[in-house]
Structures are given as C-alpha cells and as structure tokens.
Amino acid sequence: MLKKRFWIFALLAVTFLCSTVRPVNAAATHAFKAENGTVQVPNHPKRVVAGLYLGQVMSLGVNTVGSTKLELANPYLNQAKVKKIKDVGTPMNPESVLKLKPDLIITSNEADTKKMEKIAPTVQISYTKTQDFYKSLNYFAKLLNRDKQAAAFKQSFKKTAKQQSKRLDKAGISRKKTVGIYEMQNGKFYAYGAGFSRGAQALTHGLGFKLAPALAKVNSGAGFKEISIESVPKYKADYMFVTSSSGKGTKDPDLVAMQKNPIWKSLPAVKAKHVIELPFNKMYYYDPYATRGQLKIVTDALIKAGN
Q1: What is the distance between the alpha carbons of residues 222 and 219, in angstroms, rounded to a whole number?
Q2: How does residue 250 score in pLDDT terms, banded at 50, 70 and 90?
Q3: Alpha-carbon distances of 50 from 20, 91, 103, rounded to whole Å
Q4: Nearest to 288 by CA among 162, 72, 138, 147
Q5: Is residue 8 helix, strand or coil?
Q6: Structural domains in the chain?
Q7: Once rounded to an integer, what is the mean pLDDT over residues 31-39?
Q8: Using an 8 Å Cβ cutoff, are 182 and 190 in contact?
Q9: What Rg, from alpha-carbon coordinates, does the chain have?
C-alpha cells in the first residue's frame, strides 16, 4: 500500500511539473507565418543566423552570429559587430551554421531553408516582403518581437531625412522633380521601381521624391524592366540615378558606350547635367542602415547636380 501511494504521488508530481513547464515553453515562442509555413520562433532570440537580411536583424538590436559574405561586406553596418559574425557560406553551409548554435535562422530561398530547418527554427522570407522601408521594419519587428526598436529606428530615419530635406530646400532642389533609378548589368540596361534598393527608398520614402510616370508603372508591376537605348526617352526622369554592377564603376565600357549614343545625349537630364552616377557597392544594399545612410549620399549628389 505504501509503495502504491508513493508511485501515485510520484505520478502526480510529474504530471504537475509537466503541466507547469509546458506553458512556460509555449509562452517563450510565438507563431510566425513565413514562406515555409507557420514557424514557432523564440520571442527573444539570442543567436541568429541571417543571410540576406543581416542588416534588418542588426537594425533591431538582435544578436547575429552568422551571415553571408556579401551581407558582411555591407559598408553601412557597425564594423566592430560585423567582425564577430561568422561567414556561413553562400549557399549556407549546414556544418558552419550548426557550430554557431543558433536559436533562429532566417533565409531567403528554399534550398537554404530545407537544410537549415534541421538545425533550428527557420524562417524563409521572400525579398518582396522587404522592399518597402517601413513595411520591412514592421515585418521584422513582428518576427523578432522588437516593436520598440523598430519605432526607434523609424524615428532616427525620419530625423535624418528631415535634416537632408532642409539641405535640399536650402539648395533650391524641388521635390516636384521626378527621379529615376537605372543600372547597367552585363551590357543590359535596366529601369527600376522603388523596391530594388539603389537609393530608391531614400529618395521616395525619405526625401519625398516621386518616380517618373513610366517608372511608377514599372514599380507597380515587376519592379524592374530591361530597356533598350531607343526606349530610354520613355523612361526618362528629371534626375536620373545610374549604377553599374560590373564592378568597374563609371568605367563600365557598356555604360560608357551608351553615354556616347545620340539618343542618350538628347535626354533632358543629360543636357541639364542631372544624370547622377553612384557607386554600386554603396547603393546595392537596402536594409534600414543602408537606406538611412543613402539619404546623405543622394542629397549630396543632388546638391552637386544643382536645380
């Protein structure tokens, strides 16, 4: 009888412990709807591996232990913190990630996701979710449980935008002038909407410029479009921001050749010296840090170009 009572007591004790532990574990996570389904993610992740979205995670003050080479080269990030982050390879290497003991992994493609899901809770995020500055901050704030940090970064961005806007006003640069974003890639010339970085979010969300009408249509469609030199006049803007992904900067032979074309020379922006060429490595990134940093870069360039 005594043994029976002991085992009943033990069973009750275990049941009690289980009933008290489970809610604690459940409360430590929240459900997040991602590209790879609904994932239970930590409310307060301590060790995050983030590929494409390193800047987004860091901007919300979350400790990141692993990322990819391209993201680690982001010039806008805190370099002291970047030095402590390990390169996990592109695509992500499972062994490299496993060594970092992450409690959350953030990916941008299915191939990485399939490998990473075996290691820790993995959230796959489509690039389309991160193209708009404010929506992106809200999205990552929900994922990482960082609403206050997101609000603080928005305020910082608005403050910087206001400072740069005052400089534009002083220089007489009208926000009624349209802007356009363009890039030369391997001999092909592209027009962009506002969702593919290159300073577009800084110009639109930050400084209040509008895309030229034809580019606004590109923005509402695929977001980018290859255009021929013959069709460039259709996609012209008052200020045309141009980058080259060749790694050769403004010396890109394809870009130089295009600039010699009579059609290009006939553009109003060319005649007004309102074509602004900017370095690819500073305009490629589009995370919150980069977008805030690009506010000054595009403002400096606009003031130099004049009204």
Answers
A1: 7
A2: low
A3: 33, 12, 11
A4: 138
A5: helix
A6: 7-125 (3.40.50.1980), 158-305 (3.40.50.1980)
A7: 97
A8: yes
A9: 24
